[in-house]
Amino acid sequence: MERQPLVLVPGLLTDHALWARQTARLTDVADIVVADVGQDDSLGAMADRLLAAAPERFALAGLSMGGYVVQEVMRRAPDRVSRLALLDTNARADLPEQKKMRQDLMDLAAAGRFAEVPPAILPNLVHEDRVTDERFMGMLTDMALRVGADAFIRQQRAIMERPDGRDDLARITVPTLVLCGREDKLTPPKVHQEMADRLPNGALVVLDDCGHMAPLEQPAAVNAVFRYWLQM
């Protein structure tokens, strides 16, 4: 099988390490680049930066905030994407209470208390059995601290201003994988079913024993599904 260009997009407070098991194990089928989503404060700017650095045509996958970015890419340059994967994300805009929670965390970071942000966020991102796994949670914390307070504030601003993109899904015609953890508290399976139902060429995969961080929590399963998806 010929190797395909593949752009992977991290989520809030994550970086290249989110996709480490994919970049290490899929090199025989994909030429992988991890997008930079730490420098911009809007999804449009993130999408433009991704498109400027990407090959002319490529497969595209994003997790959580990364899923919002790839949806923006599809609104701007759908002809450049050969296939799409939406992981642990959704197509709805933030509710007012969600924006309030984000703003409270942004205020904390802006006040020089960013060290309090990862402990407030990370336990909700993983399966409950992993919350007590010090190595795993330490890896997530290290990622968040690498991203840092300034990028965190920019990312939250971009997330808060995202549009409701549910109607846009009907215009995405490329093969589209919709994947989530069964125990994802932030974006549960029903949210992903809603997206899959609106996609003309969408397929839903739900992974057991998995929260919001599927590429890290169930890397072997994600890699297996990605191999299938890259051949769709």
Blueprint (SSEs and pairs):
Layout: E1 4-9, H1 20-25, E2 30-34, H2 43-53, E3 58-63, H3 65-76, E4 81-87, H4 96-110, H5 117-121, H6 134-160, E5 176-181, H7 189-198, E6 202-207, H8 214-217, H9 219-229
Parallel strand pairs: 1-2, 1-3, 3-4, 4-5, 5-6
Quaternary structure annotation: single chain
Provide the spatial order of strands within the biggest beta sheet: 2-1-3-4-5-6
State mean pLDDT (0 to 100 scale): 97
- Bin the helical content: 40-55%
**N- to C-terminal distance:** 12 Å
Shape summary: globular
Structural class: alpha/beta
**Strand fraction band?**
15-25%
Give a written overview of the molecule:
The protein has 232 residues and is α/β, with parallel strands linked by helices. The protein is built from nine helices and six strands; from the N terminus they run E-H-E-H-E-H-E-H-H-H-E-H-E-H-H. It has helices at residues 20-25, 43-53, 65-76, 96-110, 117-121, 134-160, 189-198, 214-217, 219-229; strands spanning 4-9, 30-34, 58-63, 81-87, 176-181, 202-207. A six-stranded parallel β-sheet has the order 2-1-3-4-5-6, sandwiched between helices. Helix 4 crosses helix 6 (134-160). It is globular, with a radius of gyration of 16 Å. The two termini are 12 Å apart.
